[in-house]
Design brief:
Radius of gyration: 16 Å
Number of helices: 11
Helix content: 40-55%
Order of helices and strands: HEHEHEHEHEHEHHEHEHH
Strand content: 15-25%
Oligomer: single chain
Shape: globular
Largest sheet: 6 strands, parallel
Number of strands: 8
Distance between the termini: 26 Å
Length: 210
């Protein structure tokens, strides 16, 4: 589990995507890979989420494809069966963490308060999802609520944009940011994968990955 998380954190940005057509997952993943970010989290609410995860497992087994917006164990089990390499949740749900421990698939739980962080850390979670970061107050709030927890590392989602990405990544608490602008749904649905590759490359270059 830790190997998957370490790989994700090494990329420093995680594209948060949606694909609703079965023909889109593979060209989308290839575009992200060409741009320098061989990873994604597709919302479980996406029409082709499970089919897309299965496609990526078979065609691109080294690509880190996970499922996002996971709220319960039923969604988690279906995503894992389809090939999700990790689960991303906006909430703290202990049963999801237990599912991850049983299956060996890492779960990144939503944690926004000291109590949630303490419970997550206590169950062995090493990477936590600070959501919704923008609405909660961003870095000052994150660093305040996580201050007592030296071992906690954070993925930041919601409210991350080109203007504040590097500021988030400069925080010692943040190792990874969820981003949406490299592969917005309108580009995916219109098949503009070359543009997605270009935007992803620009992001990788901004972070010094390119």
């Amino acid at each position: 589990m830790e190997d998957v998380l370490k790989r994700l954190e090494g990329y420093r940005a995680l594209p948060l995507v949606r694909f609703d057509r079965p023909e889109d997952p593979l060209p989308l993943a290839k575009a992200l890979d060409r741009g320098g970010l061989p990873c994604l989290a597709v919302t479980i609410r996406s029409g082709a989420c499970l089919e897309g995860l299965e496609q990526l497992r078979q065609a691109m087994p080294e690509f880190l494809a996970g499922a996002g917006d996971i709220m319960n164990t039923g969604q988690g089990r279906r995503a894992i069966a389809a090939g999700a390499r990790f689960l991303l949740s906006p909430v703290w749900e202990p049963s999801l963490v237990e599912l991850g421990q049983r299956t060996g698939v890492p779960v990144i739980p939503g944690c926004a308060t000291p109590t949630e962080i303490a419970r997550a850390v206590g169950t062995g979670c090493s990477l936590l999802n600070f959501f919704p970061a923008g609405a909660l107050g961003g870095i000052p709030v994150l660093e305040a609520v996580s201050g007592p927890f030296d071992q906690a590392r954070f993925l930041v989602t919601n409210g991350v944009d080109r203007g504040n990405l590097l500021s988030y990544l400069a925080s010692p608490k943040v190792t990874l940011c969820g981003v949406k602008w490299t592969a917005p749904v309108e580009l995916v649905n219109s098949g503009r994968f070359d543009q997605i590759a270009r935007l992803t490359g620009e992001l990788a270059g901004l972070m010094g990955n390119g």
